[in-house]
Every structure is written in C-alpha cells, then in structure tokens.
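During the no-cost extension, the postdoctoral fellow (Dr. R.K.) reprocessed legacy sequence entries with the updated structure-token encoder. One reprocessed record is reproduced below for audit purposes.
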Amino acid sequence: MKYRAATIKDIAQALGLSTSTVSRALRDSHEISAATKQLVLEHAALLNYHPNPIALSLKEKKSRSIGVIVSEIANSFFSQTINGIESVANEKGYTVIISQSHESFEKEVRTLQYLASRSIDGLLISVSSATKDLTHLKALHQYGFPIVFFDRIIEDIATHKVMVDNFQGAYNATMHLLQQGYRRIACITNSAHLSITRERVAGYVAALEKHGIQPQPALIKYCFHGGMLLSEVTDAVSQLLKLKQKPDAIFTASDKLTTGCMRALKKARVAIPDEIALTGFSNSDLIELLHAPITVVRQPAFEMGQVATELLLQLIESKRPVKEFETRVLHSELLIQPVSQKKKK
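Re-encoded structure tokens follow.
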C-alpha cells in the first residue's frame, strides 16, 4: 500500500470541523478555543500529521532549507565542517541539503542548478578544484541569491567568506621542518588556481626564504584533484623520489594530500620520518594513531561551518539587501608530535 501523509483535510473530516478551523488551531490562533485546539492537536498526533514543507514554502516564499556543496564528504575536514553547519542550521529550524562536486566543475554546475530549482533559501559552497568559470555562481549572485563561500573562496564575488589563515598555517608547518634541520623540503599542493593553494604555497615559500633557501620549482608538485585520486599523489611522490637530490622532507597542503602522501611513501617503502619527514594539513584523528604520528596543521573545521552558516542566515533573514560583507579568517593550530621533533642528523 502506497504511503500517504495525513493532511489538514483528514483531521477536519474526522472531527467534523472546517479546514480553516483546523489550520488556525494548529497555528495556535487566538480565534480558536483552548478545547478545540487540544482536540485538533490530539487527533493530529494520532494521525502522525506533519505540516507539508512544500506548502509552507509556497505560502512563506521560503523553504527553510540551505544547500551545501563540498568536494567530498569523506574528507575529514569537510565532514567536520558539515557538522558545524548542521549544528547552527538545525537550531534555527533549517534543513541542510548536502551535495558533492567530486572536484568536477560540470557536477558543481548541475548540482547548483538542481539545488536552486528546489527553492533553497541560500547556499554554502567550497568550490571544486576545476572551477575557473564563475558564470553559474555570478548569475545566481546577481539575482540576489544568498551565497557564502568557505575554505575555497572566490575573491571577485562580493559576499561573506570564511577561511583559515592559509599562509600562516603553511608557514608554521614549513618552519617546523626547517627548525628540525631539514633543508630540502618539497611541497605537494592542490590545483594551482585555488585560493588555498596560492596562499599555502606562499607560506611555504616565505618560510624557506626566511632561512635563506631559494624555492625550487622541481620540489613543488600540483595535484589537480587535490588528493581525491591517489594515483595523482603517487605520481607526484614518485617524481620527487626520482630527483638526483631527493627531498629530505615534504609539506602537504591539504587533508587528502597528507594521507595520500603517507600511502604513497609507504608503497615506495620510504620510512617516515627516518628517510623523509612529513608535515601537512590534516583534520583526521587517525594521524595520532599511527606508529609514527606526524605533525599536522589542524583547521577549525567545525567552527568554520558554524560561522559560515551564521553569516548565510544573516543574508537570508535580512529585511534589506546586505551591501557590506565580511571575510572571516580563522586561526589554525600546529599539532606537534614528539616523533617529528627529533632533530635530523
């Protein structure tokens, strides 16, 4: 038997009341007596009645739902961010619809079109590594659709943005390796055009230059899919290991790149940190359980999700068009592990 949700009409027919009376009773209208309200509420519970969200959205011109687009939910950083998003959205009575781009521009465009067609009230997005054409985002933004960027932001769209201090996080991680005596430090990073890539590579370069070391292009490897494809990271590590002067340490600029690099080094039978030291961005708790835990840059992912959602709801619920926007920069933390503090001989 096909399921059919109970309606106001079902309650009205069962109680011999008009649908308008039942509707007012459910809204706790002062026009309806306490006895009638109690009767209606009891029968609504008996029928397992719930207000139709589609009907409500048509009436209120709001769906009370927000869309979220990330590259991959399996990424520990994004899963923690989503937890932060839901913690705020649920408290404010909003439903969260989560989608993955899988680092595909085409999928990001299709997903955005689908979410917009479902009449979401606003969008939180961390753009894919392949997103260079911003037409789909600019078109929605020009119509006044509320959008907030987080993590991977777009500078030339005027709206709220939430990010971590990428430069400082990368600088601190690279400086940590330098302070342990490593000098030939490679960098494996995301797609070259992403905001986080530019800022983290800049932090890596600044740390080297602070120690009088000239950055070498051969030691910087860009992974277009940001670690989602293990083969891409494996190729980057393989190229570094084939250099006449191999690196003595590697800095990885994102969560998936860090775990991918660890797997690639293990496959190549390179011991960490005895042969090559490793430090990178990671929000995975599994890092601490490894036989040789590594020092990582931990991002405030949960807080980022919370802040981004709060800013989006401000845009959605504002009575007037918002013309002044914020860029919130959150601080990362360098979690130093005892094993990686051992000075290189």
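Residues 17 and 341 are 75 Å apart (CA to CA). The longest strand covers residues 65-70. The remaining legacy entries will be reprocessed before the final report is submitted.
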